[in-house]
Design goal:
heteropentamer, A mainly alpha (288), B alpha/beta (240), C alpha/beta (379), D mainly alpha (327), E alpha/beta (238), D: 327 residues, 72% helix, globular, E: 238 residues, alpha/beta, six-stranded mixed beta sheet, four-stranded antiparallel beta sheet, 9 helices, 37% helix, 26% strand, binds adenosine-5'-triphosphate, binds magnesium ion, transmembrane helix (chain A), cell membrane (chain A), membrane (chain A), BCAA_transport_permease (chain A)
């Protein structure tokens, strides 16, 4: 029983990390209808940025988060301005191809800048834990989890409740009409892409103390992000938490009690089922 | 309270899509407080004219001026800030947002936010159906309900100049009456109106002045009632 | 001897200089480059300089095949490469068909030389060789009965797994847990909790670079104890970044390795230092040394060959017996392997965040610390 | 005042009807020219095989992705099924590879029918995401089900019987086989361009509801398109398996491979006759050129190339060229 | 006259809203039936139910005596129900000709015959000169005609027209009215939704009035026009 609880708890906390991996992707899809294949690479950019500051400034990786988020945001805005804005009226797949290209270019730039060895940092809490009765919690995962909930909650609130949020959604759904309401849709798109990139970078910063950074690891994260967001509902920001948790727990239980070699398959099976049965995501309003 | 001094002037406007030129030479004027109708056959370029004014479409040549501002050099959202609102053809709603969210989006500029509550009440008073459907997603509204929402959203920004593109399209007769009533009310409040309508008779009846657009050129202009009597208009647009 | 001069003799080499295996490509490049330098300053191939034309396969098998065709068409008598088994295998199939020898240094999969082909030669150890010393050590230590196996779900991992299972059976050890995990975003906690539940004297693992650190960290986190934590497939457990990234979590881990600077082969220490300098201060892994050895072996064969044709070189390779800084290289048939270098591998243990060679006894420079202290007893 | 016509419009922006014959000639000339490739570039036959084979598979992808508008990012499944079925039958049952390829085609068709039947009610990006999931799951199963597939270690093909007296491992033979496959794929695309079935597919792509109102059963037509696409891709996979001689699930069922096929079709121009061919030529041939001229930087430059094409020809190169020629 | 369409207690619910409420409706061969009612009354929903674009919540639908309540949309098109969409749905990347051709293939599997048939329909709809233009470039009126043309290509027994006159000026509207008469004269039964009274009163043999999803009146144009309920709910006193 303790073991079962432990495994579920692990799943939940890993799920928190998954949520933060997916959230930027979900936002960018929800608002810009872009299926962002570069998302995982953005995350890796966040990892390397953290690494860079960590090694230069010799401070705790969690302390450089604001800097990393800022860098991510700016990069996102620049990319949007110069590469995505020009194709805003092109067919849907053009943006997919564009993000594939962006991902290749970014990961190779990382390769030139940081070399091709996997980078691992060792911090106090990389392996530290705290306990609640017989259950063990990873400190790094806990910090990541709390930050995730705060960030996603805040973002969801902004999108649902504020004028800014409504403007963002309006620009997403009908750019011309949004312009006619005085919304600067170009700026909104840049902003959203910037936020999306910043969120991915944040995820990278949160993950670095536990996992490693490598220029070519991006696609793995992209795939995870797809799964998370579909489970939670593409574009449904708050749903990403639910999607992440569901994925985390499914994988944990599957890996522990069935077989770890099929771990990813459990998540994918859940993903496919949700797609088929509730296309709007488990936590979205169903449109049918 | 009448707004002083903001006249909309189009001078020799040319515009089009891709390699197709639609507007060849459009000059017209809408003075403060006026209700001006723009009529013409399908494809004459009425919508294109409004889109060019709103800067949704770049003019190829000519000028669009509102007061002292050159609209053709501004971006669409900045024009809205000057107080020029447009209710576009084909509704153009925010489909995945609720009725109320659509309306609120219409008043998100700092200039209009203070008036938000009262504007919302006014729109709901005008179209009670919309109040009933407040929390429904715009995409699931009936055609007519969508039209009401589009007009309502346009009013939410408390404009100086309101451009309406076929507001009566697809509305039930009683509602059409109401909409034309609303248009006149709006004008009475001092808001300038540029109206594009296929319901030529009604439009000319309430318009101070009207222009007739044909193949991208203004071919006739004059007071609404006068045009209504014109043999040419009657034959070409009223089928009488 | 005087430095080589005249018309160079050209060999082809294929490695992953870009793409997902680029980490190892840069190691191979360093090894080849230093070897060519050394060979040519020492008189080259009977006076003529050696030229290794190193081409990037972009971590992609199609590209490797395209490059191989161009090499063969341009008359290269021998090709060196590639790094990843997934590229080396199709390459080996093609080279064998074209009857041009392929000299591989770094792919570890057993299946490259088992059953192998007449045209494929491997300098590096196979996974059987990685696993073997572990069991030698276990026997010496005593008190070990049960083994849990956790490997990455790829060719190398399964190859190690097979070697472990077979050799465990031969030595009468009981395999109490045996699973593979998917690479990538690695949350090992669920599996580790299972293993903790089951309990085993040895946890034998095989992982690429980065997973190895994550694995050890999470072992510490879930407080999983064993008498021995073993990196049975070398790779991720036997490279410098394992120490750097793992910190105290990797202390006492015993890993098999192809090579260490401790070994008593000639010029081993010196070469290690030169490679490090060549790579701008990055610590070379054993892959660089093995590539160096591969190039040396190739040069040796060229020197001895009567004709510089693929067939001539293939025949000379068969008679290779050469001591390199990496160790003795010869190509033998044994246990189903064909043209495989039978060099044993060594074991190193992490002690005070350094690799200390602990096995076999004749090269060991330190003593094994055994059993591994439980996590709670460490500070 | 003149009475203006009820609707105004502009002359042909896309004169497609009747364009069929000239593009047919084009295709035949192209195929004829390609038959000289091995003689002209004897050191680059491997490259030629790769280009022609990927062109054929990208064209096959395009039947579903371009003509029907169902963006699949899981077509590697069929490449894998084609390669594995053929190889396993050769290895385990001694079945000749061409029969194995036929069986693989059948297996792919069955898989496509089930896959399509289940996921075709998903629209737009959701279908694409589902296809990624299907392919990844297939990869994981193939990787783990060692008893069936040989597992993660992969399988290699030993000697193969001669095919009509030809050595299937000869690059030259492989080239002509790939060319025949490309011819087949082009024939299908040419037929789609003008047949009722092709129009049905395009109608579904443009607006499924409207298509249904015109008596088209979208699910059925999409499934047919999927079957055709899967069958052709599977043949390509069998040939690819022979070409490689060794393969493992992570390569054969990889997302990367699926994305590449889609990329080729889109870059060249999806839903056009020559688009996928142009895309394959550019991406495969181009990356070889880049590899030689930008050693170490080729993937970077490749990425830049994709970005440039999307920026300046978002509808694909063949569409851009056609537009440029008209202007 | 044989009955072409009949619905029994046809009902459709959206969440809490009953958009079509137990509607009994019938149309006979060769009739033009006008369907009117306030905005949101359920007219388009009714069309969607009859054409199969939406599933029914209750009740039954018969076409030429055959029950089609649960038949899929494409099957109904095959049987002979053609429709236009209020929110127009052209195939934008196909030419005008190709748009019609897609429908024409249903009755004419051979391409040549289909093309001939499509050309004929384009001519009838006055769209011939735009045959090679892309559907995207048509104006509102053009697109409305294209909607009709496409539906006509099916050679339908029953044609559902949803506001095909709205947005046309009176002269253009007259042209479309003329067209609709011609279609009827070829034997096609027509049900049309329209808010322009001049058009609907002039064209319809019979008019059915919906409000809040319920049928509140039915009869000849003069009967309906003078029905106080209809005046109250829809026409207004103006
Ligand atoms: N996006 C577009 N691309 C190409 N041509 C267009 C586009 N939009 C409109 N046109 C063309 O421009 C011309 C004028 O169209 P516009 O919409 O301004 O006419 P309109 O007077 O508003 O007609 P309607 O009464 O039908 O709304 C038409 O010939 C139309 O075909
Ligand atoms: N998918 C849906 N979900 C929820 N409500 C819907 C949906 N579709 C339609 N409705 C509602 O059903 C009612 C009937 O809509 P319908 O489109 O049938 O009206 P209509 O009679 O065609 O009106 P109009 O004349 O304005 O086009 C409307 O109130 C509309 O808001
Ligand atoms: Mg218009
Ligand atoms: Mg309607």
């Amino acid at each position: 029983m303790v073991q079962f609880v432990q495994i579920v708890v692990n799943g939940v906390f890993t799920g928190g990390v998954y949520a933060i991996i997916g959230i930027g992707l979900s936002l960018i899809f929800g608002v810009m209808r872009i299926v962002n294949f570069a998302h995982g690479v953005f995350l890796v950019v966040g990892m390397f940025t953290t690494l860079f500051f960590f090694e230069r400034l010799h401070v705790d990786p969690f302390l450089v988060i604001p800097l990393v988020v800022l860098v991510g945001g700016l990069l996102g805005i620049v990319l949007e301005r110069f590469l995505l804005e020009p194709i805003v009226r092109a067919p849907e797949h053009a943006s997919i191809l564009m993000t594939v290209g962006i991902g290749l270019v970014l990961s190779n730039l990382l390769l030139f800048a940081f070399g091709d060895a996997p980078q691992i940092i060792n911090t106090r809490y990389s392996t530290s834990t705290w306990h609640l009765g017989p259950i063990t919690f990873s400190t790094a995962l806990t910090i990541a989890f709390v930050l995730t909930v705060v960030v996603i909650g805040g973002l969801a609130l902004i999108l649902e409740r504020t004028d800014l949020g409504r403007s963002i959604r309006a620009a997403a759904q009908n750019a011309d009409a949004a312009e006619l309401q005085g919304i600067n849709t170009r700026r909104v798109r840049s902003l959203v892409f910037g936020i999306g990139f910043a969120l991915a970078a944040l995820a990278g910063a949160l993950l670095l103390p536990q996992l490693f950074a490598h220029p070519s690891i991006g696609p793995t994260y992209t795939l995870k992000a797809f799964v998370v967001t579909v489970l939670g509902g593409m574009g449904n920001v708050a749903g990403a938490i639910g999607g992440g948790l569901l994925l985390g727990v499914t994988e944990s239980l599957g890996a522990a009690y069935v077989s770890s070699s099929y771990r990813d398959a459990f998540g994918l099976a859940a993903f496919l089922l949700v797609l088929l049965l509730r296309p709007a995501g488990l936590f979205g309003r169903s449109r049918t | 309270m009448r707004d002083p001094g903001f006249t909309l002037t189009l001078r020799h406007l040319q515009a089009g899509y891709g390699d197709v030129q639609v507007l060849w030479d459009v000059s017209l004027e809408v003075r403060p407080g006026e209700l001006v109708a723009l009529i013409g056959a399908n494809g004459a370029g009425k919508t294109t004219t409004l889109r060019a004014v709103a800067s949704l479409l770049r003019a190829r040549d000519g000028e669009v001026q509102f007061g002292t501002n050159r609209l053709d050099r501004m971006s669409a959202h900045d024009i809205v800030n000057l107080g020029v609102a447009m209710v576009p053809e084909g509704r153009q709603l925010f489909n995945q947002m609720t009725v109320e969210e659509n309306l609120l989006t219409g008043s998100s500029l700092s200039r209009t936010r203070p008036l938000r509550r009262s504007n919302l009440d006014r729109v709901y008073a005008l179209f009670p159906l919309l109040r009933e459907r407040r929390l429904q997603e715009a995409s699931t509204l009936s055609g007519g309900e969508q039209q009401m929402l589009a007009i309502g959203r346009g009013l939410m920004s408390a404009p100086r100049l309101l451009m309406l593109d076929e507001p009566s399209l697809g509305l039930a007769p009683t509602i059409v009456e109401e909409v034309f009533g609303v248009v006149q009310d709006i004008r009475r409040e001092g808001i300038t109106v540029l109206l594009v309508e296929q319901n030529v008779q009604q439009a000319l009846r309430i318009a101070d002045r009207a222009y007739v657009l044909e193949s991208g050129r203004i071919v006739l202009a004059g007071p609404g009632l006068e045009l209504l009597q014109s043999a040419e208009v009657r034959r070409a647009y009223l089928g009488i | 001897a005087a430095p080589a001069s005249g018309e160079p003799i050209r060999l082809g080499a294929i490695s992953s200089l870009t793409g997902s295996f680029a980490t190892f490509g840069s190691m191979e490049r360093a090894g080849y480059a230093l070897a060519v330098d050394d060979i040519n300053t020492a008189g080259g191939i009977n006076g003529r300089p050696l030229l290794i034309d190193l081409q990037d396969d972009t971590s992609n098998a199609n590209t490797a095949l395209t490059v191989a065709e161009q090499f063969i068409r341009s008359g290269v008598p021998l090709v060196l490469g590639a790094y990843s088994s997934s590229i080396t295998k199709p390459l080996a199939v093609y080279m064998a068909r074209q009857r041009v020898p392929l000299l591989n240094s770094n792919s570890a999969d057993d299946s490259i030389t088992k059953p192998g082909s007449d045209y494929v030669f491997r300098v590096g150890q196979n996974t059987d060789a990685y696993v073997k010393p572990l069991f030698g050590l276990f026997k010496q230590l005593g008190g070990i009965k049960t083994i849990a196996i956790l490997v990455s779900n790829n060719a190398l991992g399964h190859s190690v797994e097979n070697s472990l299972v077979t050799q465990a059976k031969d030595g009468d050890y009981q395999v109490v847990f045996d699973q593979a995990y998917d690479e990538g975003l690695t949350d090992f906690r669920p599996v580790l909790n299972r293993i903790k539940d089951i309990g085993a004297d040895v946890l034998a693992m095989s992982s690429y670079e980065a997973d190895a650190v994550a694995l050890m960290r999470q072992i510490k986190e879930v407080n999983l104890n064993a008498k021995v934590f073993a990196g049975a497939g070398a790779t991720g457990f036997a490279i410098p970044s394992f120490l750097k990234g793992g910190g105290e979590a990797v202390e006492y881990v015993i890993t098999s390795a192809a090579w260490s600077p401790d070994v008593h082969y000639p010029r081993a220490h010196e070469l290690f230092a030169r490679l490090k300098a060549f790579m701008g201060g990055v610590e070379p892994s054993y892959h660089a040394i093995r590539s160096y050895a591969g190039a040396t072996v190739a040069a040796d064969a060229l020197r001895r060959a009567t004709t510089l044709t693929p067939e001539g070189i293939r025949e000379t390779l068969l008679a290779t017996r050469l001591t390199t800084p990496f160790g003795t290289v010869e190509f033998k048939d044994f246990n189903g392997f064909h043209n495989q270098n039978p060099l044993p591998s060594i074991l190193m243990q992490v002690q005070r965040n350094k690799y200390i060679t602990v096995w076999p006894p004749d090269v060991a420079v330190g003593k094994v610390i055994y059993p591994t202290p439980v996590w709670t007893a460490r500070k | 005042m003149r009475r203006t016509p009820p609707s105004g419009s502009h002359p042909a922006t896309r004169p497609r009807i009747g364009a069929g014959t000239s593009s047919l000639t084009g295709a035949l000339v192209l195929l004829a020219l390609l038959t000289f490739y091995p003689a002209a570039f004897p050191s680059f036959i491997t490259l030629g095989v790769t280009i022609v084979l990927f062109a054929a598979m990208a064209s096959a992808w395009d039947v579903l992705g371009g003509w029907t508008g169902q963006l699949s990012l899981g077509h590697a499944v069929f490449v894998g099924i084609g390669a594995y079925t053929m190889a396993l039958l050769v290895l385990r049952n001694g079945v000749a590879p061409w029969w194995g390829a036929m069986v693989g085609m059948g297996a792919s068709v069955v898989v496509a029918a089930m896959w399509g039947g289940v996921t075709f009610r998903l629209r737009g990006p959701y279908f694409a995401l589902a296809s990624i999931a299907v392919a990844e799951m297939t990869r994981i199963v193939a990787n783990n089900w060692a008893r069936l597939t040989g597992g993660a270690e992969g399988i290699s093909l030993p000697t193969l019987p001669l095919f009509l007296g030809l050595d299937l491992f000869s690059r030259r033979v492989e080239f002509y086989m790939a060319l025949i496959l490309l011819g087949l794929a082009l024939a299908v695309a040419w037929w789609l361009q003008r047949s009722r079935f092709g129009y049905h597919l395009q109608a579904i792509r443009e607006d499924e509801d409207a298509a249904m109102a015109l008596g088209i059963n979208p699910t059925r037509e999409k499934v047919w398109a999927f079957l055709a696409s899967a069958a052709l891709t599977s043949l390509g996979g069998s040939l690819y398996g022979i070409f490689l001689g060794f393969f493992e699930p992570r390569g054969m069922f990889s997302l990367d491979l699926s994305v590449q096929l889609a990329l080729m079709a889109y870059i060249g121009g999806a839903g056009t006759l020559f688009g996928p061919l142009i895309g394959a030529g550019l991406l495969v041939g181009g990356s070889e050129v880049l590899r030689i001229y930008f050693p170490g930087k080729s993937l970077f430059v490749y990425g830049v190339l994709i970005i440039l094409v999307v920026l300046f020809a978002p509808d694909g190169l063949s569409t851009a060229v056609r537009r440029a020629r008209r202007a | 006259m044989p009955e072409v369409l009949r619905t029994e207690r046809l009902t459709r619910v959206f969440g809490g809203l009953v958009a079509v409420n137990e509607v009994e409706f019938a149309a006979e061969e060769g009739e033009i039936v006008g369907l009117i009612g306030p905005n949101g009354a359920g007219k388009t929903t009714f069309f969607n139910l009859v054409s199969g674009a939406l599933r029914v919540s209750g009740g039954r639908i018969f076409f030429q005596g055959r029950e089609i309540t649960h038949a899929p949309a494409y099957r109904r098109a095959e049987l002979g129900i053609g429709r236009t969409f209020q929110v127009m749905k052209p195939f934008p990347r196909l030419t005008v000709m190709e748009n019609v051709l897609v429908g024409a293939f249903l009755r004419h599997p051979s391409r040549l015959a289909a093309e001939r048939w499509a050309a004929e329909i384009l001519k009838m709809m006055g769209l011939s000169e735009f045959a090679a233009a892309s559907a995207r470039s048509l104006t509102t009126a053009g697109r409305k005609r294209l909607e009709i043309a496409r539906a006509l290509a099916l050679n339908p027994t029953l044609l559902l027209l949803d506001e095909v006159v709205a947005g046309l000026n009176p002269v253009e509207a007259e042209g479309t009215v003329e067209l609709i008469r011609r279609i009827r004269d070829r034997g096609t039964t027509i049900i049309m939704v329209e808010h322009i009274m001049r058009v609907i009163m002039g064209l319809s043999d019979r008019i059915v009035v919906l409000t809040h999803g319920r049928k509140i009146a039915e009869g000849t144009p003069p009967q309906v026009a003078s029905n106080p309920d209809v005046i109250n709910a829809y026409l207004g006193t103006h």
